[in-house]
Structure formats: C-alpha cells, structure tokens
Amino acid sequence: MSRRKPIDKTQIRERRNRMLASAAAARLSLTEGVREMRAISGMTQEEFARHRGVSARVIKAIELGQGNPTMATLNRIGQFFGLEVAFVPVMREAQDNGVLQPADDLAAMASDDASVSKAILIQFKHDRDNAAAGMHEIAEAIAEFKHQMNAALQQLKQTAAMGDSTQLPGPGNSTVPDDTATTKPLVRTRKKLRSP
C-alpha cells in the first residue's frame, strides 16, 4: 500500500464544492463523480470500495466507464457526499456561445415530461427534511413495535404464571382448548380392550 501525500483541507473543500456544483448543474458523470469522490477521500480503489461497502471491481469498472452498477450501489457510493442517483435532462454545450442547452432530441420532445429525463447522473440531494421526517417515522414505528412486544410478553408471563399453556398468545392459537388430542387415544384404548 503506497502512502499518499495528505491533501490540504482547503483543497479538499474546494474540490468537494466544485464536484457538488457540477452535480447540481447535472454536469457530473458517474465516472468523474466516483473518481473525484475517491480522490477527495484520499483512498485507493480498494479502500474506497471497502469504506462504501462495495467491491473494488465495481469501483474500478465505474471509474473506467465500463461498469453497470445498480442504483442501490451508486446511492451507497454517493451517500457519503450527500449525493444520490436521479434523472436529469441531457445537456450539451452550444457551439456558438458555450451555454448549456438541452440536446436536440430532448428539445423536440419537451412537451412530453416523461421523455425529458434521458440520462442517469449523480445529482446533489437538496431535500434533507424528507430524510429527517422518514427517520422520525421509523423511530415512532420502532417505539410502537416495542410497546406491542412488551404487552405480548406481559400477557405471556401472566399466562405462564397461571399454569395454563392452552392460552399462550400467538397466531392461530384460540382460547378454546383443542380436545381432539385426548379423544383419539381414548378411542384406541377402547378398541384394544374389545378385541380378544
């Protein structure tokens, strides 16, 4: 493992801001984005892959422009920098003034909103409030589940203390005891007694 020269924090911040600005403007390709994220992190492909929970082969293939990663993989990689995969319009630079304009085929299809989004690029994630609200909902659901489990456990303890195993809570269990198990052995016993 080679030792890398530490990058100045100011340089790291500037590179990160440039990368995020490119992503927000829909000008950051997956290849450039992953390569830049790894460079800003100061990690090798193997280290970055391990850090993001993917294989080194995936990182290498993306950086070479040969990969076909899933959206989940791309989101896992971009999450560290606050990025996610999204649909954005395909843009090209106009030859006369250098201003970004929609590609010709997209301009022709501009009336159809579903057709405008042609390319998948990493885009800056603007809405962090939704993530916070989602985490709050998850926390509430976990608290409700915990409450229900505690109530079931209390009921189980009370039933066990009474010594009545026929009324244990659970799916498919009824409060009426099943007496078919005691009926069959009695019938067999009677048959055995009758036969000589």
Describe what you observe in this structure.
This protein is mainly alpha-helical and 196 residues long. The chain has two domains: 9-126, lambda repressor-like DNA-binding domains (434 Repressor (Amino-terminal Domain), Orthogonal Bundle), CATH 1.10.260.40; 127-164. The chain is 57% helix and 11% strand. It has nine helices and four strands; from the N terminus they run αααααβββααβαα. Strand 2 (91-93) and strand 3 (100-102) form a beta hairpin. Helix 1 runs antiparallel to helix 2 (30-41) and helix 3 crosses helix 4.
> If you average the pLDDT, what whole number results?
71
> What is the H level of CATH, i.e. the homologous superfamily of the largest domain?
lambda repressor-like DNA-binding domains
CATH architecture of the largest domain: Orthogonal Bundle
The radius of gyration computed from the alpha-carbon positions, rounded to a whole number of angstroms, is: 31 Å
Shape: elongated
> Which residues form runs of ≥5 with pLDDT under 50?
103-127
Strand order of the largest sheet: 1-4
Count of spatially separate domains: 2
Q: Give helix and strand order, one letter per element, not per position.
A: HHHHHEEEHHEHH
Q: Determine and state the CATH class of the largest domain.
A: Mainly Alpha
List how many beta strands DSSP finds: 4
Number of helices: 9
What percent of residues adopt helix (DSSP H or I)?
55-70%
Main sheet makeup: 2 strands, antiparallel
> What structural class results from the helix and strand content?
mainly alpha
According to CATH, what is the topology of the largest domain? Answer: 434 Repressor (Amino-terminal Domain)
- The fraction of residues in strands falls at 5-15%
- Tell me the distance between the termini: 88 Å
Pfam family, one: HTH_3
GO molecular function: DNA binding
Domain HTH cro/C1-type: 34-88
Region (Disordered): 162-196
